[in-house]
Amino acid sequence: MTARFVAGRLLQVVPTVLAIVIIGFLLTRLAPGDPVLALAGEHGDAAYYAFMRERFGLDQSLPRQLAIYLRQVASGDLGFSYVYGRDTMHVILERVPATILLTGTALLSSLLVAIPLGAIAAARPHGARDVGISTLALGLYSTPAFWVGQLAILGLSLKLGIFPVQGMTSAGGDSTGVLRAWDVARHLALPALVLASQEIAVLVRVTRSSLLDELPRDHIRTARAKGLGEARTLVRHALPRAMLPIVTIVGARIGHLIAGASIVEIIFGWPGMGRLLLASLQSRDTPILLGIFLVVSLTVVLVNLLSDLAYAALDPRIRVR
């Protein structure tokens, strides 16, 4: 992979991030509602409201506020939370590990489940296994995450008692080491599976379609002519080349995964950025909203950049274009 190719992709990140910051700022500032009224209540006096607006810099003109915010972001400063009275970055970073754990587990689970299922479906197209797997994938894809989450809580948590209902750890638990890891894993399993459900549906269909495009090619016929078994031909020769669309889809779906994580966190009481986002929306805590918007947007941009680089590493022809 050439340094020129990598540099070109990195340069594309700068205007993208700048546009994201400006759009996010304008959306939060132009949205209905007054953060001062949300924070101080509707029955304060005018002097107090004026003091609060001056304190938070809301008494400045919109272009002036934008210029100040861009300068702060460029220096790594996201401001202070109206509600928490603390540095915005610190408040968000406290929630990031929980969200990374949830989304990372869901993504890994979806890959481990979807790729084998897609390969099984493609091995005998239009057979019983293919129809069953495709039907399951279509059902998962057409069912909203919040509905899957509610059904999972009712069936697996409340009725069968297999998984905990809410939170990241047991209430009042003070376990450490292996016991704490097991407690977190039990609480993580259900929300991660719910979050992974739609990703599994998408990746199963992409894997199946990509393998069906790859199996009729000459190098696959050559491998079969040499006496390689069907399973070995599929895994060693067809699947590696079929991974290119999968890499692209995984990069493109990161935004959907994070958006779904916000819903799943609210349903299961998972202490990540999704719950913080909901609380900040209700209290009109603009610095937190902007900070979450920036962190999530940067994550999506960087993951898409990494997927582009991975695609180029897997297919050298991309670098030439």
Would you kindly provide a written description of the structure presented here, covering whatever features stand out?
The chain has 321 residues and is an all-alpha fold. It has one domain: MetI-like (MetI-like fold). Helix content is 79%, strand content 0%. It has helices spanning 3-30, 35-40, 46-56, 62-74, 88-123, 128-141, 145-159, 177-214, 218-225, 230-268, 273-283, 286-314, 317-320. Helix 6 (128-141) crosses helix 8, helix 7 packs across helix 10 (230-268) and helix 10 (230-268) runs antiparallel to helix 12. It is globular. The model has no long low-confidence stretch (mean pLDDT 83).
What would you call the structural class?
mainly alpha
Shape: globular
CATH topology: MetI-like fold
Overall average pLDDT: 83
Assembly annotation? single chain
**Domain module count:** 1
Helix content: over 70%
Give the class-level CATH name. Mainly Alpha
Total number of helices: 13
Report strand %. under 5%
Q: State the CATH superfamily name.
A: MetI-like
Kindly summarize this structure in a few lines.
With 321 residues, this protein is mainly α. The protein is built from 13 helices and no strands. It is globular and about 85 Å long.
Key words describing this protein structure:
321 residues, mainly alpha, MetI-like fold, 13 helices
Per-chain topology:
Layout lengths: L2 H28 L4 H6 L5 H11 L5 H13 L13 H36 L4 H14 L3 H15 L17 H38 L3 H8 L4 H39 L4 H11 L2 H29 L2 H4 L1
